[in-house]
Amino acid sequence: MSSTSTRTPPEQHPSSRSSTVASATGSTGHMLRRGLQISPELTRGLAVTLLLAAVMTGGRVVVPIAVQRTTDDGLLAPGGVDTAVVWQTVAWSALVVAITAAAGYLVISRLYRAAEGGLATLRRTAFRQVHDLSVLTQSTERRGSMTSRVTSDVDTISQFVQFGGVMLVISLGQIVVSTVLMLTYSPVLTLVVWCCFVPLMLVIARFQPVLGRAYLRVRERVGDVLAAVSESIGGAATIRAHHLQQRTGERIDAAVEAHRRAGVGAHIRSTMAFSSGQFLSGFTVAVVLAVGTWLAVRGDVTLGGLLAFLFLVNLFTQPVQQATETLNELQNAVAGWRRVIAVVDTPADVADPGESGVELPRGPVEVEMREVTYAYPGAEPVLRDISWRVAPGSRVAVVGETGSGKSTLVKLLTRLMDPDDGVVLLDGHDLRTVRFSSLRDRVVLVPQEGFLFDASLAENVRVGAPDADDDVIAAAVRDLGLGWWLDGLPAGLATGVGPGGENLSAGERQLVAIVRAYLADPDLLVLDEATSAVDPASEVAIQDALERLMAGRTSIAIAHRLSTAEAADEVVVVDAGRIVERGPHRELVGAGGRYARLHASWAAQQRS
Fold first, then answer.
1. How many helices (H) and strands (E) does the chain have?
2. CATH code for 29-345?
3. Residue 475, φ and ψ in degrees, nearest 5
4. CA geometry: angle 12, 432, 418, nearest 5 deg
5. Looking at the domain that runs over 367-607, which CATH code has it been given?
6. Residue range 533-537: average pLDDT?
7. d(CA 240, CA 507)
8. Which residues form the ABC transmembrane type-1 domain (predicted)?
9. What is the pLDDT of residue 499?
10. For residue 469, what pLDDT is reported?
11. How many Å is the maximal CA-CA distance in the chain?
12. Which pLDDT value is given to residue 608?
């Protein structure tokens, strides 16, 4: 056996390990840059899209120019109406408008394609990261909240990316172009316009951080609603059994009300900014009309120039008003991005060493723990200085009271978590150096409550061996002595198990987990209280199948019913996170210690 020093990876220390996913921090610009890094499709071809957007912006100023030329050089020409100028202006205006419309179509279609591609990448990245998060994080983060990060939060980003992002750029370009043209007609009127709108721009700048916080609260409340609804649906049977409908309804109502308040608060703030824009737009037009009329009377501006200027004011004020709404969408999107990026950037504290990792050889596995300690965040250690060795091919039963640390041992043995101190070894190799593909091939967990997908029995069993056909699965079932069970199912392997396996009994669900494990053909079998939730008759069938499954393999069983311990080569007794006794069943019973008392209590319950 190779020697391996005990070490504590700094990122695994309980003081630095988090069990929840918070929202990412950073400025709006930082969030946008990070989002574009995750979804590079959003920037591909952006230069062409922006060029087309510039064509759109330039095309929009054609109308004011056409109005000025038609009025001054056509309708009010010194020698009378010049129809040639009018028709020429109409012709080239129509051409430019057509080009502008085509550019607009191309901009929107390119945006949608880029947005859908980028957001699909974002969803896939976030979803895969969810599966890379530690079991601790997955179990403590509310399911509905995590779901909202990958679904509705991405949708808020989509609403901005597909339209608001480039519209914001177009709006800024339109403001610049409008300002330049307004200066050519009347610097005085241009100064009037900017004096009217500078206060609005200051208000918008001040409102953005407030709106950002408001929309982040909205996204968080959406997660709360989804979590409450998801839990009520998943626990419907328990809710009905314990008559908790009113309490559950009140909890959902409270989540919905909190979301309503957050949404109303955010929209009130955004409406204030939008209404300010509308008011100042009308006010600006009125002031420009008054000052422009005065300038026209003085001869400082022509009638066509004044009309063109009024059109330009509309082109100037329109994007400013739109900018208030677009910036609201931006803050909503940034709030969603913060929550999604928080998932993507949460480090996977159980990392796969990948190609550089160890490939374990086939054969019964030797298991060893050296001075292993583990504590959940903010809590006292549940395991303290655990040291023990399991010989290859032996059967070990771990027993102890509820809360003694047995299930944590299982998570460490299967590397669903890493220890804070000490080391777990398989065949002399630190578990943290073993590549996941090898670990999952060699080590299989049979959980107390195995998850079943809403599919056929065959598809659920095939989780253990994706390439197994129905004949191989049927042969495996019969090898385990479960042919009678398969023959009794209404559609055999095609029988639908229902959501979460609700069409099967607890014992049948465990049989599925056993067949999965058998098909996976592991060298180390870890059984987490695999017979704790079934009736005695089902336990007989399960125990017989387990005997066949464990033959020739190293096995470690968390024994809830001590009949498992009676058949083991060695019994390990865990109490308050420490190993207090070890040895064969008969020796421990004869010693009259902790195990003897547990066994006597269990035997008395069996007799009663």
1. 22, 10
2. 1.20.1560.10
3. -65, -40
4. 35
5. 3.40.50.300
6. 64
7. 23
8. 47-332
9. 81
10. 92
11. 125
12. 64
Mind listing the pLDDT tens digit for each residue in 444-502? 988 877 788 888 999 989 888 888 899 999 999 999 988 888 888 899 999 998 887 88
Tens digit of pLDDT for each residue in 320-341?
Answer: 767 666 777 777 778 777 878 8
Please identify which residue in the block is written with the tokens 């190993």. Answer: 579
**What is the distance between the alpha carbons of residues 316 and 48, in angstroms, rounded to a whole number?**
24
- Which residue's entry shows tokens 């420490």? 578
**pTM, 2 dp:** 0.64
Q: How far apart are CA 424 and CA 368, in angstroms?
A: 6
- Which distant-in-sequence residues (6+ apart) come within 8 Å of 4 by Cβ? 370, 423, 425, 428, 429, 430
| Residue 502 φ then ψ, to 5° | -65, -20
CB atoms within 10 A of CB 2: 9
- Identical topology for domains 29-345 and 367-607: no
CB 310 within 8 A of CB 289: yes
Strands 429-430 vs 443-446: parallel, antiparallel or unpaired: unpaired
Strand order in the sheet with 381-390: 381-390, 367-375, 421-426, 429-430
**What does the alpha-carbon distance between residue 539 and residue 550 come to, in Å, rounded to a whole number?**
16
**Angle formed at CA 213 by CA 249 and CA 122, multiple of 5 degrees:** 80
The domain limits of the chain are: 29-345, 367-607
Give, in degrees to the nearest 5, the angle at Cα 316 between 311 and 320: 140
List pLDDT tens digits, range 211-259. 777 877 887 787 778 777 777 766 665 666 656 678 778 888 888 888 8
CA distance 305 to 141: 63
Tokens matching residue 448: 């107390």
Q: How far apart are CA 381 and CA 14, in angstroms?
A: 9
Cα distance between residue 510 and residue 534, in whole Å? 9
| % of the chain residues with pLDDT over 90 | 16
SS (H, E, C) 67-111: HHHHHHHHHCCCCCCCHHHHHHHHHHHHHHHHHHHHHHHHHHHHH
Residue 138 is predicted with a pLDDT of 61
Please state, in angstroms and rounded to a whole number, the distance separating the CA atoms of residues 175 and 194: 11
Helices (H), 365-443: 406-413, 436-442
Going by C-alpha positions, the residue among 214, 176, 491, 464 that lies closest to residue 330 is 214
Q: CA 538, CA 507: separation in Å to the nearest integer? A: 6
The confidence score (pLDDT) of residue 15 equals 38
> Which pLDDT score, from 0 to 100, does residue 75 have?
73
What are the tens digits of pLDDT across the range 156-192? 777 777 667 667 777 777 888 888 888 888 888 889 8
